[in-house]
Design a protein that fits this description.
The complex is a heterotrimer of chains A (284), B (288) and C (309). Chain A has 284 residues and is an alpha/beta fold. Chain A contains 11 helices and 10 strands. In chain A, the strands form 2 sheets. Chain A has a 6-stranded mixed β-sheet, with helices on both faces. A 4-stranded antiparallel β-sheet of chain A has the order 2-1-4-5, covered by helices on one side. Chain B is mainly α. Chain B has 12 helices and no strands. In chain B, helix 3 runs parallel beside helix 6. Chain B starts with a helix and ends with a helix. The model of chain B has no long low-confidence stretch (mean pLDDT 88). By secondary structure, chain C is mostly helical. In chain C, helix 5 packs across helix 7, helix 7 runs antiparallel to helix 10 and helix 12 packs antiparallel against helix 13. The longest helix of chain C has 42 residues. Chain C starts with a helix and ends with a helix. The N terminus of chain C is likely disordered. Classes of the chains: A alpha/beta (284), B mainly alpha (288), C mainly alpha (309). Chains in contact: A-B, A-C, B-C. At the A-B interface, helix 3, strand 6, helix 4 and helix 7 of A face helix 7, helix 8 and helix 12 of B.
């Protein structure tokens, strides 16, 4: 790039980025999916939010959930770790199997479930504690008795944050920039070695540079974790995910699964007309 | 043509503004007058021996030693009883009670009503329940139990506000990590609500320090010439001592009543300032 | 260190019953603490009711309501509660006559006229006024206000209702101001703008738009303040006297319900005597009056909330 070329920053990044590492994903479902969702319908009080969703989320892949706002993407995500239980009027029918166990059965404990599933929220929400204490929180409540310092360092390195905070581990988590706070929240989730990472529009409040860093991080993490990411940014979905699910809500404002396939297919040769209309920007 | 009628209206406007301003100035003026009079009457007789002597028949020799110690005992015991209970109740109502639960709403409405019950009624409750039924007689523990019931609604209400001020996103983050409810409350919510809760406690205790009627009703004495020596000891408090001296005809007693008032007011101003400082520091910590 | 491989080993999500029991055990003391407040109310009602019923077994209700003198501590006993109630009402009405206009004017000033700086300076003053112990107000009433009244109205007794009423009014004023100001600040700014846009002057906006819009909230504030006046004890005990008289004259000693309870408590009335029971009967009347007023004000608050939702 010669100096003096005034190309916009985002274009620059596109040229600099390597295309995401795509593994060969067979078109039929991977034999041992992390989540098997079957006939899931949900209601908040009398208002139905999702209708009859059926899909499998593969292990150790990145699955993106896209769709216009209000179509139920976050609701679906929060079903996976039973965070919707915190809303008193919530009701769900259908089944969600996590590694073969039905997570909604009476014998399943949401607390145990959430200890294996990490969640990152749209707006970074670090605790008003030190950076160290934020990362140490999860291990502490799990009764971790070994060397916390080593665990915190390992986790912060994994979240691409160590170099920036290693000299101020006891500073408040709130004193970091937006992108750093979000990486801190990712580190906090990683500290208990979950299987799965759920991410609800993690970059929507961040600037392009911070977004780029986190997308890099996500691609790196996908080697070891199952990642499900809700995003309204289609380019992001096509950049980082292996499979994509497209949700849409009709006039009754009930979300339905329109199409679910390998990301390349969704974005180049979608089967459903509505998918095509959405990704070409005709609505959304 | 328009200006004519507007002219008179403008006069009323000025008059009214003046009236409002005058009322405000009057309020400030009354406070200033009150403080000046009290300090003018009270400071001359506020000596060290005043602080360390017992009451006496002679104003020149009387002091507030027993009253100060009694107040300290009473407030200390009240805090020990009411603060944990009040915060526990606030936590249950805010974090554990199911929404729209009948019992929870009954408790809420009940607390709101209790906050408006005159303090002397609490005195009657203390008299009937603690002094008679529990046979604690006119002891400092009976007084502390009575005062605890009186300040409990204040602590619960301000505790709930402090808990509600902790953003939902904090709880969400903790629950999403698989923390149990007690872990979320004890490790995330309560530490974040610390400042607001402490402010509420300080304000509740300031109220308790100034209360007179309920303690008279349960039988706190007005002439005590010894230090409290145990939970069952009879006692007096500063406001009651003040009341006793005001009720005497000799003007010498009126002067030392003013001195005792000075001590009381200085203590309250200090506590008020402390509450403001705590509130500010807590808000700053939550904002990072 | 928790390696990724360790973590990825499947952990069961079955319900851990021991942990669930532990969570319940934590919740129990918290729930009991919340129940203490119910116990308080039950206690108040129980104690008052018990002694009052015993009282009415000796003194028929008719006597209580119709006699015109209150002399339970003398040898010829009369039990006309009207004497005490009239004193309470007299001092409370007097206090409200001072506190309502004064408090409302200050509230209007703070809400509609004052700059943020002035508001920030005046509010702490009001908080201090509200926080002064009533015993101190009693001192002020007896030793500052009463001499002034005696100078202005010769023949005023040392203990009189006027002094107590005036000082009670000062004590209540901050409460009227802060509650009324809350009600007025809930009025949407768009209403004021509409009025200004029509060319109204500030006092017209305040009096014709804001106050009427905030009326139910302001009424709730008034009723609550009146309830506070009715329940006030020390100011009246110190300044109005302990001499029960049925009168409308504010310049003579009178005894309110609250002052009577204090009077008996200061003495050496043994438990279980009729005199002892009278304070509970009086307390019951006081409790019912203030409860009624508080419930009434809550009704107004609910109407006030409905208007803005």
């Amino acid at each position: 790039m010669s100096p003096g070329t005034a190309t916009p920053l985002v274009q620059n990044l596109d040229m600099v980025l390597e295309p995401p590492v795509r593994r060969d994903v067979p078109t039929e479902t991977a034999p041992d999916p992390a989540f098997r969702i079957s006939g899931l319908s949900t209601w908040y009080g009398k208002a139905q939010a999702l209708r009859d969703l059926t899909l499998d989320l593969p292990k150790n892949r990145v699955t993106a959930i896209i769709g216009p706002s209000g179509c139920g993407k976050s609701t679906l995500l929060r079903c996976l770790n039973r965070m919707n239980d915190l809303v008193p009027s919530f009701r769900a029918t259908g089944e969600i199997f996590y590694h073969g166990d039905d997570i909604n059965s009476d014998k399943a404990d949401p607390v145990m479930l959430r200890r294996q599933i990490g969640m990152v929220f749209q707006k970074a929400n670090p605790f008003p504690k030190s950076i160290f204490e934020n990362v140490a929180f999860g291990p502490r409540i799990n009764g971790y008795r070994k060397d916390l310092g080593a665990l915190v360092e390992h986790t912060l390195r994994r979240a691409y944050l160590w170099d920036e905070v290693k000299d101020k581990l006891h500073a408040s988590g709130l004193a970091l920039s937006g992108g750093q706070q979000q990486r801190l929240c990712i580190a906090r989730a990683l500290a208990v070695s979950p299987d799965v990472l759920l991410m609800d529009e993690p970059c929507s409040a961040l600037d392009p540079i911070a977004t780029y860093r986190i997308e890099e991080l996500i691609r790196d993490l996908a080697k070891d974790y199952t990642i499900v990411i809700v995003t309204h940014n289609m380019q992001q979905a096509s950049r980082i995910s292996d499979r994509t699910a497209f949700l849409l809500s009709g006039e009754e404002r009930v979300g339905e699964l329109v199409e679910y396939d390998v990301t390349d297919t969704i974005f180049t040769t979608p089967r459903d007309k509505r998918t095509e209309a959405y990704i070409t920007g005709r609505f959304g | 043509m328009i200006l004519g009628s507007l002219g008179r209206a403008r006069v009323y406007d000025r008059l009214f503004a003046g009236l409002c301003l005058g009322a405000t100035a009057l309020a400030i003026g009354i406070l200033a007058l009150l403080l000046v009079k009290i300090f003018a009457d009270g400071v001359p007789t506020l000596t060290l021996s005043f602080l360390t002597s017992y009451p006496s028949r002679f104003p020149a020799e009387a002091g507030i030693r027993a009253a100060i110690l009694g107040t300290l005992w009473l407030i200390g015991l009240t805090a020990a009883i009411a603060v944990p209970t009040g915060i526990a109740a606030a936590v249950w109502l805010e974090e554990y009670a199911p929404r729209n639960n009948f019992l929870a709403r009954l408790i809420e409405t009940n607390i709101a009503n209790l906050a408006g019950v005159p303090s002397i009624i609490y005195g009657l409750l203390g008299l009937g329940l603690f002094v008679r039924i529990l046979q604690l007689e006119r002891s400092v523990i009976a007084g502390a139990l009575t005062m605890s019931l009186l300040v409990l609604p204040i602590i619960v209400i301000s505790g709930r506000e402090a808990l509600r001020a902790v953003p939902r996103s904090q709880r969400d983050a903790a629950y999403a990590m698989g923390a149990t409810r007690s872990q979320v409350v004890s490790r995330i919510v309560l530490p974040a609500a610390y400042g607001g809760t402490l402010t509420g406690v300080i304000l509740a205790l300031s109220r308790a320090i100034g209360e007179t009627a309920p303690l008279i009703t349960i039988g706190a004495l007005t002439f005590i010439a010894f230090d409290p020596d145990g939970l069952l000891s009879p006692f007096t408090v500063l406001p009651i001592q003040i009341f006793n001296w005001i009720s005497r005809p000799q003007s010498g007693f009126h002067d030392i009543a003013a001195s005792a008032i000075v001590v009381l007011i200085v203590t309250l101003l200090f506590m008020n300032a402390l509450a403001v400082v705590v509130r500010d520091r807590a808000q700053r910590r939550l904002r990072g | 260190m928790m390696t990724v491989a360790e973590g990825a080993a499947r952990r069961s999500i079955r319900r851990d019953n021991a942990a669930a029991i532990r969570e319940r055990l934590v919740e129990l003391p918290l729930f009991l603490a919340a129940l203490v407040t119910i116990v308080t109310t039950v206690g108040i009602v129980g104690v008052l009711l018990f002694e009052t019923l015993e009282f009415f077994q000796v003194v028929p209700l008719v006597r209580f309501l119709t006699e015109t003198e209150w002399t339970p501590l003398f040898s010829t006993k009369q039990f006309g509660i009207i004497v005490l109630i009239s004193a309470t009402v007299l001092t409370s009405v007097g206090a409200m006559l001072l506190a309502l206009p004064l408090g409302l004017l200050v509230a209007i000033y703070l809400s509609e006229y004052a700059s943020p700086n002035v508001r920030r300076a005046v509010k702490p003053v009001l908080e201090v006024l509200a926080g002064i112990p009533t015993v101190v107000y009693g001192y002020f009433a007896l030793l500052f206000v009463t001499p002034i009244i005696q100078a202005l109205v010769p023949g005023t007794a040392v203990f009189n209702g006027a002094s107590a009423a005036i000082v009670m009014g000062v004590m209540i004023m901050p409460m009227v101001t802060s509650l009324s100001e809350d009600a007025m600040s809930a009025v949407p700014q768009s209403l004021r703008e509409a009025a200004f846009g029509l060319g109204a002057l500030r006092h017209q906006v305040a009096l014709r738009v804001v106050v009427p819009a905030a009326l139910s909230g302001i009424s709730a504030a008034f009723i609550l303040a009146a309830s506070r006046a009715v329940g006030e004890t020390m100011i009246v005990a110190i300044a109005a006297g302990l001499n029960p008289t049925l009168t409308l004259n504010p310049f003579v000693p009178i005894e309110t319900m609250t002052a009577y309870i204090v009077q008996v408590s200061l003495g050496d009335t043994p438990h279980g005597t009729l005199e002892y029971k009278t304070i509970f009967a009086v307390g019951m009347v006081l409790f019912l009056m203030t409860l009624g007023m508080n419930l009434l004000s809550q009704l107004f608050v609910r109407r006030f909330r409905e208007e803005y939702q």
